[in-house]
Amino acid sequence: MADAPHNILIVEDDPLLNQHLSELVAGAGYGVERCFDGASALKAVRCGRHHLMILDLMLPQLDGIALLGHVRKTSLLPVIIVSAKGAEEERIVGLKQGADDYISKPFNATELLLRMEALLRRTQAASAPLKCQISVDSLHLNPSTLEAFIDGRQLELTQIQFTILWQLVSNRGQVLSKAYLYRHALNRSPGTYDRGLDMHLSRVRRKLTDAGWSGHRLQTVHGKGYCLT
Description:
Order of helices and strands: EHEHEHEHEHEEEEHHHEE
Number of helices: 8
Helix content: 40-55%
Radius of gyration: 17 Å
Low-confidence stretches: none
Shape: globular
Structural class: alpha/beta
Strand order of the largest sheet: 2-1-3-4-5
């Protein structure tokens, strides 16, 4: 695993599917570590040696949603949920808890690999050392560590949430279209009924407000896009 450019943690309790995912991911050139329950996965995440986690929701000992909650307290590790729980409410719960993407079983192998590549590419781009840190009033963003602070207190954001906020802060005063944010933050085009960006933006706005920053400054400009005033 150490020689691979990216190390992927696969958390899936079904032995056959776990093996299938492992072979698929390893075959694409990634390093792989396998876990079969939430408790062992949490221990693995805390070692800090992974670049992305593929997570099932139905897990023994500690289910996927609970595991994700623990992970997000200390880590911005990119997470793709791969679960048979494909109902809209389950996707919303997963995204609210901090997942970066969600794909339902049965899944297309090529689509999963492409989503992994896109998420890893966003992670690398957002942490590029050439990007300068930015401060707006008491809000401070550090792209090299993907960390956001308000009055010195860290704001817990997922990879996608940080990237959205970074784009809005970097272009403050300008209206960014939904297509632009999908392309530069989610690295994809929006689907016909796709509300993924809206959910992420709502979550960012609430986190800013809860931390005492002016979340209302993140505005929706009807018919045009979004803007940080």
